[in-house]
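Closing statement on the pyridoxal-5'-phosphate sub-project.
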Amino acid sequence: MITTHLNKLAIFGGKPAFPQPLHVGVPNIGDKKRLQARIDSILSRRVLTNRGPMVTEFEQRLADYVGVRHCIAMCNATVALEIVTRALEFEHEVITPSMTFIATAHALQWQQITPVFCDIKPGGHHLDPARIKAHVTPRSTGVLPVNVWGRPCDVDTILSVAEGFGLPVVFDSAHAFGCSYKGKMIGGFCSAEVFSFHATKFLNSFEGGAVVTNDSQLSEKVTLMQNFGFEDRDYVSHVGINGKMTEVQAAMGLTSLEALDRFVEHNKQNYHAYRSGLQNIPGVELIDYDERERCNYQYIVIELDERITSISRDQLLDVLAAENVDARRYFYPGCHRMQPYLAYFPNAGMLLRNTESLLDRVLTLPTGLAVNVEQVEKITEIISRVVESGRAVSLRLRARSGASRSRAANDPCIEAS
Ligand SMILES: Cc1ncc(COP(=O)(O)O)c(C=O)c1O
């Protein structure tokens, strides 16, 4: 009986639930006609870059939306992080989580600044303010927490701990455009924050990012630095790089901004469909959004407790992949287990127990405009069915991988390594 039931799963030979793969982070696209009209105007003007009218309009709209004094749009968030941390004279060591996309750490390392990885809160996904102290040394120059999934860190506590050590804070808010903390939009909480408008983000400008700040001096410095340090036509006053956003990127960004409410509404419906489909599955916990706040609902993240589900996160990943649901293990295996950090600090994991445990349990599921509620319901049904028979699925998958290993061992064409 259970075997017949399991045979319906694509991983055991059944027909995949979806004819085409559903991916995480398929771009949200706004009104194509509005975008095309903007691109036409760019081409007629022949101003393609160098802070033209599209970029300045985008910057102004972003600053107004977030409620900050300054916004400097850039080619992407990684370069924006590099520039703003350099403008703030971060050097030597900066405290940051490992539970983040590798760009957070690389933006520091690229400048020969050591990312000192700090653990996340027990049971949480964000930097643990209580652990910052343990990582402060005479070489510490700043803190770079991440508002991962668009859910805010413990902002107030982090700011007060950092202030106690005289350390400036920059939030990597790559995921958090359109989200709030204690009723105030994320973006204006510390020296500066950085958003990403990469194609996979809630609001995209193809590629893109922005530094937002209320500090006029910092804004001036960042503006110079992202344009080679040019203060005037023939006058360079700073070391600089090319971090400029192009006009076409800003055209896409403006078009996305106009569609923002639609994006939020769609994501919210998907989130609620996931929530109701997953709520009664033992051992599967959906990371929730605090709906008293503004949320962009861009990430659907579940945590699996294998002791209850009997099936591991990686097995579920494979089962879903066979059904054409391309879930992701963000941010597995964690920055500290990637190079060059693993080589520099092979034992970093000893102080990152919560991070490592989370990274073995977490799975991000598809949402965004490319996914609808019916598809979400189908995904949650698959997860429910699989977890219901978790032990049987797991045993069968293990038996299969054992069999293929022993076939490989007996195959004279496959050399032992
Ligand atoms: C947490 C985080 N920080 C930084 C970045 C880098 O953003 P970008 O791709 O715009 O350079 C990303 C991108 O996905 C991210 O997820």
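The longest strand covers residues 70-74. With this model delivered, the sub-project is considered complete and its resources will be redirected to Aim 3.
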